[in-house]
Amino acid sequence: MPDLDTIVSLSKRRGFIFQSSEVYGGLSAVYDYGPLGVELKRNVRERWWRAMVYRHDNIEGIDAAILMHPTVWKASGHVDAFSDPLIDDKASKMRYRADQLIEGHIARLRKKGKDEQADAVYDRLVEALNADNPSSALHAVIMDEEIRSPDSGAFDWTDVRQFNLMFETHIGPAADSESKVYLRPETAQGIFVQYQNVRETARLQVPFGIAQIGKAFRNEIVARQFVFRMREFEQMEMQYFVKPGEQMPAYEAWSEKRMQWHLDNGIRESKLRWHEHEKLAHYADAAQDVQYEFPMGWQEVEGIHSRTDYDLSRHQEYSGKKMEYFDPQSQERFVPYVVETSVGLDRTILMILCDAYREEEVDGATRSVLKFHPEIAPYTAAVFPLVKKEGMPEVAHRIEDDLRKQFNVFYDEKGSVGKRYRRQDEIGTPFCITVDGDTLEDQTVTIRDRDSMEQERISSDNVRRYIEDRTGRWTPET
Predict the structure, then answer these.
(1) Distance separating alpha carbons of residues 203 and 200, to the nearest angstrom
(2) What's the number of domains the chain is made of?
(3) How far apart are CA 446 and CA 382, in angstroms?
(4) SS3 assignment, position 418
(5) Domain end marker among 164, 194, 217
(6) What domain range is 142 assigned to?
(7) Whole-angstrom Cα distance, residue 440 to residue 445?
(8) Domain-located, residue 360
(9) Spatial separation of the C-alpha atoms in residues 67 and 189, rounded to whole Å
């Protein structure tokens, strides 16, 4: 497993991810995707959409606006309760999430073999999160356990306070309370307020789903760990509407499908696990996360939640508009329950980068390689003429043009073939095609596999078919 600094360095050096506004010193916890990153992100985004929308006949898409009526966030509970419990180290002036400090303390205890003490602290954490005054309860755990600051080592804390995470802005020329709106902190509410319009226009019957991919914004006070926690990020969500009482079978089915999606993307099964929520949100009757073992430990990538009828009922109450569904079979009226799948696109990109990265010894040298699933890799293939003469570039360009009908392809004629291979390995290109002197004689080319580094001689007319076949049959290393 690479450390996070290795991934950050690779991301900048090869054009995956840059610090936003870097020429001005950067903007904390905001990032831009470079030429390779935007292709990787697009491939993952499209792969999710195909799996979620195109492969289900009862799921439709939506693209809701980022700015919404401010009452949406009052109804959803975000105005009053969307906050993190934060605590300050007086020595270093660093700010931390109180619950994560305690979780880190528990992990250290387990590492030392003090499982009984860790279990006791864990029980207190769960009790604190569910307390009437969680801030005070979390502070008590930190003080009783004498948890020190990770940065300064000091034990000099402020009280735990709740900070609302929503960004505010204003519509129109007057910046007053009447014009205040919010940048959406999640994409789900855009689905809920348009639920009836989508259902009626798409002629959907319960059970059905609405999917959306879009930007969300949170004023993260503690924003670290590269693109894992950002202030501007992208979510891929699907809300699945079911009859009350039928939510748990749907919850279990979607949990299985979503874990399989990550595995199908090439993520190693040993690096994934389920994590049950210690504290359920007030609207949920079940919740669990797909976690990945990042360089900084096990962290959430996707959440599966059974949200009951909370969201639709709240919007019905605040808007005065009916959110009921009439079942023509049973002749019943009811507000549907909702099962949600919500995955962070940026976190998924970080997971894919971490999981794909390898360092291997080859002929006494170290090879850095990203073993992406071929359908996710920014470039599917690279085409090389052995030399820039004797008609080889012309043949290479013909192969490149043919491949571009279906794949994103990179053309490279600079440097030795060995160096060109290494460049493509480091950005995760699955196949390299080399045109050489024999090509001009027998119309065959050398095609090299990224993972095995094996080379095979095939007809230049069969390159696209060869890559199609190998891409469909690719399996990840265990």
Answers:
(1) 5
(2) 3
(3) 12
(4) helix
(5) 164
(6) 83-164
(7) 9
(8) no
(9) 11
Q: Number of helices (H) and strands (E), helices first, in the chain?
A: 16, 23
188 within 8 A of 68, measured Cβ to Cβ: no
361-418: per-residue pLDDT in tens? 888 889 999 999 999 999 999 999 999 888 999 999 999 999 999 999 999 999 999 9
435 neighbors 453 (Cβ within 8 angstroms)? no
**Residues 119 and 264 grouped into a single domain:** no
DSSP-H helix ranges across 130-194: 134-144, 188-193
Last residue of a domain, one of 106, 131, 164: 164
Q: What is d(CA 340, CA 59) in angstroms, rounded to the nearest whole number? A: 13
Q: pTM for this structure?
A: 0.85
Bond prior to 207 in cis (omega within 30° of 0): yes
Contact 323, 314 (CB under 8 A): no
Looking up residue 159, the CATH number of its domain turns out to be 3.30.40.230
Q: What is the pLDDT of residue 478?
A: 65
**Cα 278 from chain centroid (whole Å):** 22
Residue 322, domain member (yes or no): yes
CATH assignment of the domain containing 36: 3.30.930.10
H or E element in which residue 118 lies: helix 115-129
Tell me, yes or no, whether 219 and 324 share the same domain.
Answer: yes
Those residues whose C-beta lies under 8 Å from the C-beta of residue 20, and which sit 6 or more positions away, are 26, 27, 30, 31, 32
With respect to residue 133, please indicate whether it lies within any of the assigned structural domains.
yes
186-222 in b/e form (b: 16+ CB < 10 A) is bbbbbbbbebbebbeeeebebbbbbbbbbebbbbbbb
Q: Do 337 and 424 belong together in one domain?
A: no
Q: Look at residue 474 in the predicted model and tell me its pLDDT.
A: 80
Q: Tens digit of pLDDT for each residue in 305-332?
A: 999 999 999 999 999 999 999 999 899 9
